[in-house]
Amino acid sequence: MKTGKTVKVLLALTTAAGMLAGCGSKTDTDTFRFANDTDIVGMDSTVVDDAMSFNAITAITDGLTTVDVKGNTIPGIAKSWDVSNNGLTYTFHLRDAKWANGDDVTAQDFVYSWHRIIKNAGNYAYMLGSEGASIKNADSLIDLGTTATDEQLNTLGIKATDDKTVVVDLEKNVPYFVGLMSFPCYFPQNQKFVEKCGKNYATKPEYILGNGAYKMTKWIKGNKATFTKNDKYYDAKSVKTKNIEMYLVQDPKTAAQNFDNGKVDYATINSTLVDKYKGKDTFKAIREGYLAYLICNFKAGTTANKNLRHALSYAINRKDLCDNILKDGSQPATGFVPAQLCKSPSGKDFREESGKYVDYDVKKAQEYLDAAKKELGTDTITVDLLYGTDESPMDTFAEYLQGSFTKLKGLKVNMVATVKKDRIYNREASGNFQIACTRWAPDYADPTTFLNVLASSNSNNYGKWENAQYNSLLKQAQNETDVNKRWNELLEAEKVMMDDMPNIPVVQTGTAALQAKNVKGLVHNTVSTPYVFKYVTLK
Prior knowledge:
The protein starts with 7 loop residues before the first strand and ends with a strand. The protein is globular. The protein has helices at about 50-60, 105-120, 140-145, 150-155, 175-180, 190-195, 250-260, 275, 305-315, 320-325, 350-355, 360-375, 395-405, 420-430, 450, 470-480, 485-500; strands spanning about 10, 30-35, 65, 75, 80-85, 90-95, 160, 165-170, 215-220, 225-230, 245, 265-270, 285-295, 330, 380-390, 410-420, 435-440, 505-515, 520, 520-525, 530, 535-539. By secondary structure, it is α+β, with helices and mostly antiparallel strands. It is about 30% helix and about 20% strand. Strands 2, 9, 10, 11, 12, 13, 14, 15, 16, 17 and 18 form an eleven-stranded mixed sheet that branches. It has a four-stranded antiparallel sheet with strand order 5-6-8-7, covered by helices on one side.
């Protein structure tokens, strides 16, 4: 697989300078107005793990690498890099870049932030370890977490040999390493600024500092964030739009009305609005890299039954769900690794090569359920289905699944409604669920970004599934130097996992959105940060 190349979708339109009323019309060509139904949770790249926060952080900060207008990985703060013959040492040469306050961006800024994500026990700290970049000594330091001393952190495989040189040592070859460096958890932080802010760091615009295309100037959580072009940005010439306004936690219906009234230029909408806008040249149905799936809790009794899990999978008509309910560009999942994520050394898509592991068959679903009832010694099985009401369209998704499951004789479903934050950080993290509706976005263009989620050691394996053969295959792939053997080990790992069905893949999600006709250069990623605003122009 070609390093540093990821699958992207460029949202660009080639039409005219003006817009008609009812299509996001406005006269201000200096401000791009973006509406989304999620919030910016935080602005500290060593802590946050949600997509909207990544959108905002990427707007104000560049890493060692970044992406171009087509979504391809290009040099960022690093103007170039060298790779050792054995592929285990990367030497990055930094360009003359500035933080928005005028400070130089230095190699030590990267060392500091990588140490800090471990000290913070950040949710993405694992990406430094063997399940991500495989930085030397990262795994043992991540295990220490908040207890790691400065002396111990200095053993991490990243060094600033001078102000403009970052040297990174890896435990093993990572073919997608350069592309990883554009992901927010690897971004630098200005140590002097962070320590001066203390506990206030990243809580308000005055306590936020970036080195990227924009500066955050206003932020009202759950409402709106404003960004202004950073004139100190090393690539300021590429930034054509002066301001960005992000309208946060905006109900899709409200966002659509604001779009029609010319108050926003881009708005994500939900499936209930698709029929109204589909066919218009401002409507976009975009395939994302997200996989929407069900987590089955192996510590919750009933859902540890393999036949029950297969019954649930066969009961789902994924095509009907995508075509007639979601209607947002979502596609039926056929395995746990989505399509168009990555290709084999010979150029074949992983999903195409791995094949189809799920299908819709009500007769088989009933047969598996009957077998599960017999094994569990009951005539009726009741399961709890956990979902977030603030995760559109996951509420619609959950309701559809409830209807599918209750068509089976002897299966009842209790709907457990909550919000995303409680679902992930409370209920799933503590194991307080039976089946949870969730989704996962790829952090990099490789099958392991999904397969690692089911490793016994992975903190995101909320269902606590353990399989020795699966763990062994992932470990073999981590240490494999032959790219063809590595690929086959990952194919086999998915096969082992899907045979047991610990997580039930449902759909590869899409986004339905409205985009004004004068908007060009908005990059939508299926990998890493969902949106890149740097290249947006309004004409």
